[in-house]
Amino acid sequence: MARMRDGAVARLEAHPADPDPSPIGYDMVDVARSTARVTQPMVRKAFLDHGPRYADNRRGLEPFVPVSWSEATGLVAETLQSVKARFGNEGIYGGAYGWSSAGRFHHSQGQLHRFLNLYGGYVDHVDSYSWAALGVIMPHVLGDMMRVHPELPTWAEIAKNTQLFVAFGGVPLRNTQVNPGGLLRHSVRDDMKAARDAGVEFVCISPARDDIAAELGAQWISIRPHTDTAFMLALAHVMLTEDRYDRDFLTRCCTGFETLRDYVLGVSDGVPKTPAWAANICDCKPDVIVALARRMTERRTLVSLLWAIQRADHGEQPCWMAAALASLAGSLGKVGGGVGYGYGSVHGYGTAASRFKATPFPQGSNAVKTFFPVGRLADVLLNPRTPMQYNGQTLTTPDIRLIYWVGGNPFHHHQDINKLIRAWQRPEAVIVHEPFWTATARHADIVLPATTPLERDDIAFGDGSLIASHRVLDPVGQARSDYAIFADIAAGLGFRDAFTEGRSEAEWLTHIYESTRSRAKDSGLDLPDYAGFRRAGVIELPQAPPPPTMFGAFRADPAAHPLGTESGKVQLASARIASFGYDDCPGHPAWLEPIEWLGSPRAATYPIHLLSSQPKTRLHSQYDNGAVSQASKVQGREPVAMNPDDAAARGLDDGDVVRVFNDRGAFLAGVRVNDGLRRGVAHVSTGAWYDPLVPGEPGTLDVHGNPNMVAPDRGTSQLAQGPSAQSALVQIEKFEGPLPPIRAFIPPASVPR
Ligand SMILES: Nc1nc2c(c(=O)[nH]1)N[C@H]1C(S)=C(S)[C@@H](COP(=O)(O)OP(=O)(O)OC[C@H]3O[C@@H](n4cnc5c(=O)[nH]c(N)nc54)[C@H](O)[C@@H]3O)O[C@H]1N2
Ligand SMILES: Nc1nc2c(c(=O)[nH]1)N[C@H]1C(S)=C(S)[C@@H](COP(=O)(O)OP(=O)(O)OC[C@H]3O[C@@H](n4cnc5c(=O)[nH]c(N)nc54)[C@H](O)[C@@H]3O)O[C@H]1N2
Ligand SMILES: [Mo]
């Protein structure tokens, strides 16, 4: 909430209804006014001089030239026309992955997609950086995740009915600060505490103790990163050999049991997946596995898998095996039991949903059907018109000539930034709308300054509340909303009226609200009119009734309530996946050695497994220059958490600056010694703005702490082709010599024409 003084915003405060407010947004005002803003349209000098056909692009290296709005929008229209004339709409990538801002109307991607759809379409992406492997494999195993997610037991149900909560990756409260669409009440901390008080026992299986709140008194089982599948297979081994599995459920509701059993027992490959076998891989004690398997079959158990675990080489396997484990243990389809993906990844998993959704901003439909899995961006740019496997299909990679990006920061989110820098030079044109001089804006040809949420009215729809977000700042510099920018470009291309439908921004907001209101009325709910809504600020919508028991109806009568899988049952093995013939994703869940992990030969050179998680003090790269994020830095660098033994072995003290590196790249970070991290594992949050020592030079040191300098750009498997950000082995050494300054928040050089 904005506190105003003398007609101007003085500061932002938590909403009084929020029991556990997040500090992340507090800096929005300062950040919006910071020097890192793009204040007027800018064009890269070589692009201005030579236009889109110029081949010798050195994006990120050359200075920008300030231009007027009319020249900028005219140049965008010309560039689009030039590319479309020569390559068609298939030459335009408009996927623009990213979180942008939470509003219903000023949602950058929605604006871009509407604009490009009206212009004839664009190459799109599928899946996400968040849960690509999960989203592609689970429809084969349990059916559509969009049906599974809403049935997840809520924390209230867990408190009532669950006895044992087995959390692979823990349930980090840090991540529940955030929810797509926004959020009014941060309730998960209290919800989990209530579950604990009601007697639920938590087990956290993770390389990091802090992945679950200390007050829950959880059992911490420390395993090596990426070994969760081996651990689960051994749990299954105990269940099978001690005859502790649910024959009834397996017979009636699953297919592929024999295949999985033969693999677990070693009948099919000669390697029994015993607790001793797994303990060797996971580096834990075998009895811990035996004891946990027994508890899981004696108590009503919910198996939980954090998304981070599948953001890894072969990330499909732990997802699949977690469902198999819940099936064996007999808890799937029973109240308070089963398997959940996403508890602790964002706020909205396990929290009550509202009864209906707000009306979205209409995007129209895309005439171009070409797509690629989002995590493969650099490969697509580097290798156009090349076959690529994806979920049983052979795709042909598109030939992208123009990138149009609004509301995302690939130079933050993509793996292997040095490879991205090379790939990013290939297109003829890169157009970006950004409020800030992010690395993505710096690597663009045309940069158009966008407003931040504080500079415009909007409607947010989060965890079941409609929130009026008010304009409390004047647009900074010449910044405009994405909508206003697109409306002007559409004018130059002859479709302004189709884009705006004759509505101003205020009229669109009223329209979206009134349509939501009339749908609400149909379901018997009276909402105030638009003016009343804006005055009220927040309308808490009635909650949906608690979800039915997840898979309960299916368990009771699988023929009457089939899942959306090939057999209608839970697939413990899949003939369809087997038929794809992928060696990196066989027809049943399996332990496949990740390309990089502590057991791989590469660990002799790069002995530390670097995990990169979501930041506690930011939303990805957003607000990195704000006070909350800056307070967490070490000598201005992103902190790297290290185990005390690993630090000591390198002569490192808390507060030292180190170089974290492998053969892909290197970055500086500041040591935080942490005994809650297992040996051989280090941890850096994502989101420190890429800050190259020599801008534009591939391979140069990032002086600020972006873990994507070292993370591999590799598909999880041919099935999902998801990002494998977590699969990075590195070496860490003390950084000697004078510390380079942080320049990421200073605008790039600009020259007059
Ligand atoms: N190594 C590693 N990498 C990762 C991950 C990891 O775990 N490890 N996690 C991945 C995940 S799950 C995700 S979701 C991604 C997140 O990656 P992104 O979503 O790309 O990250 P953000 O920093 O949120 O980028 C949003 C950008 O939109 C801009 N923006 C905000 N509002 C507006 C607006 O109204 N208009 C315009 N034009 N721009 C706006 C912001 O200034 C910001 O630059 O990162 C991924 N990358
Ligand atoms: N504060 C904040 N919250 C956010 C976001 C943000 O930017 N800021 N972003 C949101 C977004 S877009 C997303 S997708 C979610 C993502 O949320 P997640 O992907 O669920 O979480 P991460 O923070 O990436 O990682 C959580 C933990 O997983 C553990 N881990 C990593 N690899 C392994 C492994 O192989 N095995 C085991 N057992 N554990 C492992 C690490 O110890 C790490 O601390 O977070 C959301 N929440
Ligand atoms: Mo994400």
Q: Which ligands does the model contain, each kind named once? A: ligand MGD, molybdenum atom
Percentage of β-strand residues: 15-25%
- CATH architecture call of the largest domain: 3-Layer(aba) Sandwich
Helix content percent band: 25-40%
Counted by DSSP, the helix tally is 26
Radius of gyration: 26 Å
In terms of structural class, how would the helical and strand content be classed?
Answer: alpha/beta
CATH topology of the largest domain: Rossmann fold
The gross shape turns out to be: globular
- Tally the beta strands: 28
The averaged pLDDT comes out at: 95
Biggest sheet layout: 6 strands, mixed
Q: Main sheet: which strands, in order across?
A: 4-3-18-17-16-5
For the record, the count of structural domains works out to: 3
End-to-end distance, in Å? 43 Å
Q: What is the C-level CATH assignment of the largest domain? A: Alpha Beta
Unreliable stretches (pLDDT < 50, length at least 5) are none
